[in-house]
Amino acid sequence: MALRAALGSRKMRQHGGGGWWPSSITTRSMSSSWWKHVEPAPKDPILGVTEAFLADPSPQKVNVGVGAYRDDNGKPVVLDCVRDAERRIAGNLNMEYLPMGGSNKMVDETLKLAYGDDSDLIKDKRIAAIQALSGTGACRIFADFQKRFSPDSQIYIPVPTWSNHHNIWRDANVPQRTFHYYHPESKGLDFASLMDDVKNAPNGSFFLLHACAHNPTGVDPTVEQWKEISYQFKVKGHFAFFDMAYQGFASGDPERDAKSIRIFLEDGHLIGCSQSYAKNMGLYGQRVGCLSLVCEDEKQAVAVKSQLQQLARPMYSNPPVHGALIVSTILSEPDLKQLWLKEVKGMAERIIGMRSSLRENIEKLGSPLSWEHITNQIGMFCYSGMTPEQVDRLTKEFHIYMTRNGRISMAGVTSGNVEYLAKAIHEVTRAG
Question: Do residues 133 and 352 make contact, with C-beta atoms less than 8 angstroms apart?
Fold first, then answer.
């Protein structure tokens, strides 16, 4: 009563909780000021392309920006091995929570893909691994692990790289440096500058490497170059973290696409690896992946895995079960695995065929430029060399959509649109 008297004639309003507040301070006026400082986030450079494509009413429109496989009719694909796996698990579904580390069976089969069926590392239980939310989730868990257990370290990221890599390590508060990778003039690998950056980085630095089908350039080191990179990493004591989003999808052969990792393992490196089944099994929306770290011994692997699980716990508690069941069923049942190997080879070969067709169609038009890089590069993406202004012309005049860095998703190129795409590219580039 004394407090109310002291406030004099000021009107008060009692809330349900029993507190007294000035009537001028309403719940609405308080809450409306909380988020006034929030500005709209910039559009994602990749997802924004699809939004613009969908809004375009033109019947001629072509989307070569999306990083998802399409068949020769431009339609999404569900692999036959995935359909068969779903039928087999349908009668035995279990929707209970997975452990924090995910499906042990899926993880075990996934490690065989990256490290080899007969890997001594697997036999000796020297790999700490957990199921992750596709490749993005695996990279993010590792970035947080790096920050927690090597807090003064940085991450060296290639120029260019998948744009989300920068977001992942930034939000994990890991300082970023860059190293040379792509050579714009040759549209190939800038190997000399890459090696200089590896040599000049402080001993014991962390490097992000694309295991195969580098995104966005499609430019990979040769086997001999990977051996030189591995040797120099050994000299400098660097740590290699491989992002392997396209195993099998690059060349059609999962063993060949894991060669970079195998070279580092043969040289005794304790590497890290992110794996994803978005591309090579078409499980984009299932978000199935794996994070693994090679350790000195089994005891260290147990400790590292426990910490990876602790990092996952406050993020998402445990990973989803359905995609993990699909992957483990396909990889553990011989007939389904053989079917998958056949289908992933077919996807890779279609993209390789579209590369040849696009190059041939552009050259047939008498382009003054060299287009060898289209077939020299590998994987889902072609780093065309087109400027942002040329890309803008493609969109405005021809209704062709891609990211402004000139990255073409070869999965969006079909026998039905390749000639139109080639003519449009020739038109915007023929001035040199």
Answer: no
pTM flag (> 0.70): yes
Residue with tokens 């073409």: 408
Q: Are 79 and 263 in contact (CB under 8 A)?
A: no
Each of the 432 residues of the chain gets a pLDDT tens digit; together they read: 444 444 444 444 444 444 544 555 555 555 568 998 999 988 777 778 888 898 999 999 999 998 899 999 999 999 999 999 999 999 787 889 999 999 999 999 999 999 999 999 999 999 999 999 999 999 999 999 999 999 999 999 999 999 999 999 999 999 999 999 999 999 999 999 999 999 999 999 999 999 999 999 999 999 999 999 999 999 999 999 999 999 999 999 999 999 999 999 999 999 999 999 999 999 999 999 999 999 999 999 999 999 999 999 999 999 999 999 999 999 999 999 999 999 999 999 999 999 999 999 999 999 999 999 999 999 999 999 999 999 999 999 999 999 999 999 999 999 999 999 999 999 999 976
Write the Ramachandran bin of 204: left for phi over 0, alpha for psi from -120 to 50, otherwise beta. left
Catalytic residues: 162, 243, 279
Q: What per-residue string of b and e applies to 22-35 under the rule 16 or more CB within 10 Å gives b?
A: eeeeeeeeeeeeee
CB 383 within 8 A of CB 216: yes
Residue 404's Cβ-count burial label (10 Å; 0-12, 13-18, 19+) is middle
Task: Provide DSSP, 305-317.
Answer: HHHHHHHHHHHHS
Number of residues that this document lists for the chain: 432
Cβ contact 316:152 at 8 Å:
no
CA torsion sign for 381, 382, 383, 385 is: negative
In terms of Cβ atoms closer than 10 Å to its own Cβ (0-12, 13-18, 19+), residue 331 is buried
- Cis amide leading into 184 (omega within 30): no
Measured from the Cβ of residue 94, the count of other Cβ atoms closer than 10 Å reads: 9
Place of tokens 């407090």: 3
* Residue 6, helix vs strand vs coil: helix
Output the six-digit token pair for 315.
């993020």
Helical packing angle, 191-200 and 223-236, nearest 10°: 10
